[in-house]
Write a structure and sequence with these properties.
The chain is mainly alpha-helical. The chain has one domain. The longest helix is centred in the C-terminal third of the chain and has 27 residues. It is globular. The protein starts with a helix and ends in a 5-residue tail after the last helix.
């Protein structure tokens, strides 16, 4: 991703980037394990900043989306280096 896009993402408020509801259905989600200290921290953020209106799965989905937007090109480059074609 270009530096300008990264700067634009950084300019958005935290709430507008991460504290928004998602359209994914809870039943289709997979279980994940999070460190207890992170779970407590995430829950406090959601309760205070998110006013208790955003479920944890939606918050994590937004964080992961942002991560892949920022580092997607780097991930693909590293993946391609490690995953050599058979032919």
């Amino acid at each position: 991703m270009e530096k300008n896009n990264r700067k634009q993402m950084a300019k958005r408020s935290y709430g507008s980037q991460f504290l928004k509801k998602q359209t994914i259905e809870r039943r289709s989600d997979k279980a994940i394990y999070v460190r207890e200290e992170y779970h407590e921290r995430l829950s406090r953020i959601l309760n205070i900043i998110g006013n208790g209106n955003i479920p944890l799965y939606a918050y994590l989905d937004n964080i992961l989306k942002h991560h892949f937007e920022l580092f997607g090109e780097d991930i693909i480059k590293d993946y391609d280096k490690m995953n050599k074609p058979l032919f």
